[in-house]
């Protein structure tokens, strides 16, 4: 649905050109939820603004359903933008207008809808976001989560096929975040709307993103299925972003109960199982094939979006040849492993 190719963008600051997006290319399939993560200042907001040409790239193309929006006329762009809804971290509601009027605004601005049509559409949106009883209230009397629901209703009233979100849940507490994520997922699944979102919250990626791109200094440094990126990131920066608690810290915390000394016959290994192989009897296969021993130090079984995964931190005791056999079995069974020590 979206195909971004070789996007460049720079800003002139004090007569010097600063590169902000540096040869960005990626694709988002129709109906996907695509997350963009990265440190502050990496270029995330600039990138998402380029997707509806709020920022104009210096070069590169942005194809949305086969139309390169960097090459079309102002009139065509206005039409194209109606296909793209946007939600923001701080909601951007008009405080002097009621909830009804805020949601109606995009249709009122288009000025080709009757009052009745607008009323019908707004009521549908109020229903969708669960704010039927709030039509005549003003933003100031709403909680953060309710304000974001209004933001979502306003973004969807033009029936877009694409929703862009820049940190839409960052100003919300964890419980409210969870309910907004559920709403976004419902919108994605029921209405088939493609979502591109920026976030610094892992919870957002875990719950709703199918794919994720990591951006740093204006470049995509890593990209792929959320489960793969979260469970075995390749780049050092991605590891920092997605692995909240280092293993060193973990082993340090449990050292009163468990101490580990490095040797050629003892290793600490992290196993990651994704999808179907989450439920495979991997450890028993290895111990049948070799004379090694395991202790399980830590384990997790959960889901990333719709993908089940498991992660096990184990201590392996055995000879080098047992370790080689174990590695082969892991490879055969498609289990990702990382020998930490
Ligand atoms: N309008 C602008 N003029 C000059 N520099 C800008 C402008 N907008 C963003 N930048 C710079 O571009 C870089 C990326 O900004 P941004 O896209 O907001 O990053 P992020 O959203 O990842 O924090 C930053 O160094 C920022 O200072
Ligand atoms: Mg930003």
- What's the number of helices? 12
The name of the CATH architecture of the largest domain is 3-Layer(aba) Sandwich
CATH-defined fold name of the largest domain: Rossmann fold
What's the name of the CATH homologous superfamily of the largest domain? P-loop containing nucleotide triphosphate hydrolases
Overall geometry comes to: elongated
Coarse structural class: alpha/beta
* CA gyration radius, whole angstroms: 24 Å
Strand content: 25-35%
Query: How many strand units?
Result: 14
Instruction: Give, in spatial order, the strands making up the sheet with the most strands.
Output: 6-7-8-3-9-10
Order of helices and strands: EEEHEEHEHHHEHEHEEHHHEHEEHE
Mean pLDDT: 93
Helix content: 25-40%
Low-confidence stretches: none
What's the main sheet like? 6 strands, mixed
Look at the structure and give the CATH class of the largest domain: Alpha Beta
Ligand inventory: adenosine-5'-diphosphate, magnesium ion
What is the number of domains? 2
- For the termini, the CA-CA separation is 43 Å
Give a verbal description of the structure.
There is one protein chain. Helix 11 (282-289) runs antiparallel to helix 12. Strands 6-7-8-3-9-10 form a six-stranded mixed beta sheet, sandwiched between helices. A four-stranded antiparallel beta sheet has the order 2-1-4-5, covered by helices on one side. The longest helix has 18 residues, at 174-191. It contains twelve helices and 14 strands. The model has no long low-confidence stretch (mean pLDDT 93). By secondary structure, it is α/β, with parallel strands linked by helices. A hairpin with a 2-residue loop joins strand 4 and strand 5 (67-68). It has helices at residues 44-50, 74-81, 99-110, 115-128, 144-156, 174-191, 202-208, 226-231, 236-242, 247-253, 282-289, 320-332; strands at 2-13, 16-28, 33-37, 59-64, 67-68, 84-88, 162-166, 194-198, 211-216, 219-225, 266-274, 293-304, 307-317, 336-339. The protein folds into two domains: 2-242, Rossmann fold (3-Layer(aba) Sandwich), CATH 3.40.50.300; 247-339, ACT domain (Alpha-Beta Plaits, 2-Layer Sandwich), CATH 3.30.70. Adenosine-5'-diphosphate binds next to strand 1 and helix 1. Adenosine-5'-diphosphate is lined by residues 11, 13, 20, 38, 40-46.
């Amino acid at each position: 649905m979206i195909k971004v190719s070789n996007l460049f963008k720079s800003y002139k600051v004090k007569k010097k050109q600063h590169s902000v997006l540096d040869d960005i290319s990626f694709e988002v399939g129709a109906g996907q939820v695509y997350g963009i993560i990265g440190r502050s200042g990496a270029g995330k907001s600039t990138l998402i603004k380029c997707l509806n040409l709020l920022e104009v790239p210096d070069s590169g193309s942005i194809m949305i359903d086969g139309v390169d929006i960097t090459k079309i006329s102002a009139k065509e762009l206005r039409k194209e933008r109606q296909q793209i809804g946007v939600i923001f971290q701080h909601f951007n509601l008009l405080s002097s207008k009621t909830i009804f009027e805020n949601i109606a605004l995009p249709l009122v601005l288009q000025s080709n809808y009757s009052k009745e049509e607008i009323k019908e559409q707004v009521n549908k949106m109020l229903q969708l976001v669960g704010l039927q009883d709030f039509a005549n209230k003003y933003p100031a009397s709403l909680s953060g989560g309710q304000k974001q629901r209004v933001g979502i209703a306003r973004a969807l009233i033009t029936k877009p096929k694409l929703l862009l979100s820049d940190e839409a849940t960052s100003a919300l507490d964890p419980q409210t975040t969870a309910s907004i994520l559920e709403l976004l997922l419902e919108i994605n699944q029921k209405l088939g709307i493609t979502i591109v979102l920026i976030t610094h919250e892992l919870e957002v990626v875990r719950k709703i993103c199918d794919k994720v791109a990591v951006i740093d200094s204006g470049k995509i440094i890593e990209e792929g299925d959320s489960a793969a990126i979260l469970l075995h990131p390749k780049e050092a920066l991605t590891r920092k972003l997605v692995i909240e608690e280092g293993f060193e810290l973990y082993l340090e915390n449990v050292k009163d109960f468990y101490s580990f000394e490095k040797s050629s016959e003892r290793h600490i290994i992290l196993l990651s199982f994704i999808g179907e192989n989450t439920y495979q009897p991997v450890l028993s296969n290895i111990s049948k094939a070799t004379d090694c021993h395991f202790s399980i130090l830590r384990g997790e079984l959960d889901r990333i979006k719709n993908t089940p995964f498991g992660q096990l931190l184990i201590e392996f005791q055995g000879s080098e040849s047992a370790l080689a056999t174990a590695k082969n079995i892991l490879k055969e069974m498609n289990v990702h492993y990382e020998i930490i020590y």
